[in-house]
Specification:
Strand content: 25-35%
Radius of gyration: 30 Å
Largest sheet: 6 strands, antiparallel
Number of domains: 4
């Protein structure tokens, strides 16, 4: 099916929506303040060499100098020498014999600055593409260990043919497993152009200059998200449209031809009610068109999806009702996995079906819908308990983790203690305090709902407690407190 990409840009945030058939399929969000430095390439200047620490401080134009350890100084492997052996050789050469103060050095950030610590650097440059990682200082062809062993040699041979005499090292990422020669060749061409631009900048620009920045979300739209099925890419910012067009014309001309500047008066995300879909994607319940619904719960270990018939009674008999609900659910589940970017283990509890042909049809439809996912998925069959287990590769934070944070009241549990339970906790705490201390009075500070319960239904118990410990107990309602929060003040 044809798809459209809508880009909503603001100085603080970029949002990208992939729409297919009028429905939101994927959402990508990038906050300007949260973009890290990892992957950036700088022309640094050696500020200090510390032989005692076998390290050097490099000025790359940031507030704090960055840190280069001798183990991160790249040493070109000799003929027949492995990369690990080359690293060991470099680490045995004292850093004061490899760099000197005032020297200009091309470096790449491998760890962001944290607190008072500066960024950590390496002199081995690697440039990430859509399916490949380019190692311009090396000539090794590597393949991700996550790709099946029996496929690695064939992929390595294909890459050797595509790289040819131009040389350079490449690592095939997991999403290159099913890539065509044309897609790999496009990635190689893009990476070589990026490296040529880095070298040209290093020769022309002064020390402490930024030579290469890892692509932002707008640029990754052209590199990673645009496919043959993409019919248009609409951007609501004229400035960003111009920058993206220039980038696309140089590196991805085919994708750049699909760019359009959106000039409408309505916000671009209002065209397909994108914000409404985002709000629904943050909830547990997802309604199906037939009247059924899904309940999606995301936990640390796995994601569970429960399918329910709800108000759907339109089929001729109960078996058909269940079958049609499950069939409809497969499409919605696959879409929600993409939209929420749920990764790891996913367990789906379809409504129990009596007939084997119904179960097989639902399973076939589920696998068919998952094939449309650009992220690698694997779907098993029905278990003995009637559950379908599947996995989806984690590529980035889920939508809920990007846009939400745990509730400060329930601390992410999704539930809070009842007001009555809290009052009984307070009773026990007062008894505990009365055994250890001898104040003139106990003052309970709690939420208005808890205090109201003390004054009404629990007033006799409160009076009995006060008489038992021989001390008055006063109450104070604090509207800023959550239902589980309370404080007992010794007066």
């Amino acid at each position: 099916m044809q798809e459209d990409i809508l880009i909503n840009w603001s100085p603080q945030e970029t949002r990208v929506a992939i729409v297919e058939g009028g429905a939101l399929q994927e959402l990508h969000v990038e906050c300007a303040l949260e973009r890290g430095l990892v992957g950036n390439v700088y022309l640094g200047k050696v500020a200090r060499v510390l032989p005692g620490m076998q390290s050097a401080f490099i000025d790359i134009g940031l507030e704090r100098a960055a840190f280069l350890h001798v183990a991160d100084v790249w040493h070109t492997p000799a003929e027949g020498e492995t990369i690990s052996a080359a690293r060991n050789t470099a680490a045995q050469i004292p850093i004061e014999k490899q760099v000197f103060e005032g020297q200009s050095l091309m470096v790449q950030v491998i760890k962001d600055p944290i607190g008072t610590k500066g960024a950590r650097l390496s002199t081995q440059i690697s440039i990430a593409g859509r399916m490949l990682v380019f190692l311009p200082q090396d000539d090794h062809i590597g393949v991700s260990q996550k790709i099946a062993a029996d496929q690695r040699e064939a992929l390595r041979a294909r890459m050797q043919a595509l790289v040819g005499a131009a040389g350079g090292g490449f690592i095939l990422r997991t999403n290159a497993e099913d890539a065509s020669d044309h897609e790999l060749a496009d990635d190689i061409a893009y990476l070589r152009k990026a490296w040529a631009r880095i070298k040209e900048g290093a020769a022309r620009l002064p020390a402490t200059s930024l030579l290469h920045q890892d692509l932002n979300l707008l640029q990754r739209v052209l590199r990673d998200l645009t496919t043959e099925a993409t019919q248009s890419i609409r951007v609501d910012s004229l400035e960003q449209y111009g920058l993206l067009k220039a980038f696309g014309d140089e590196f991805m001309p085919a994708a750049a031809q699909k760019l359009q500047h959106y000039k409408g008066e309505r916000p671009i995300f209002d065209l397909h009610s994108i914000d409404d879909d985002i709000a629904k994607a943050l909830g547990r319940r997802v309604d199906l068109k037939s009247g059924g619904y899904l309940i999606i719960d995301q936990t640390e270990a796995l994601t569970t999806v429960d399918v329910n018939t709800g108000g759907f009674v339109g089929a001729r008999n109960f078996d058909d009702t269940i079958f049609k609900t499950n069939l409809e659910a497969t499409q919605t589940i696959a879409r929600q996995l993409r939209l929420r970017n749920l990764g790891g283990i996913v367990v789906v509890d379809f409504i129990d079906m009596e007939r084997d042909e119904h179960r097989q049809a639902v399973l076939d439809e589920m696998r068919k819908q998952l094939k449309r996912d650009r992220v690698k998925t694997m779907c098993g069959g029905f278990s003995q308990l009637g559950l379908v287990e599947m996995t989806r590769k984690r590529t980035r934070e889920s939508l809920a983790h990007m846009l939400c944070e745990p509730c400060p009241l329930c601390e992410g549990k999704g539930m809070v203690k009842t007001a009555r339970t809290v009052t009984y906790d307070i009773f026990r705490e007062i008894l505990r305090e009365a055994r250890q201390f001898n104040p003139k009075e106990f003052r309970v500070v709690a939420s208005p709902k808890v205090i109201e319960l003390f004054l009404d239904e629990e007033s006799q118990h409160l009076a009995g407690l006060s008489e038992f410990i021989g001390k008055p107990v006063s109450l104070h309602a604090e509207s800023a407190m959550g239902q589980e929060q309370y404080d007992i003040v010794l007066m």
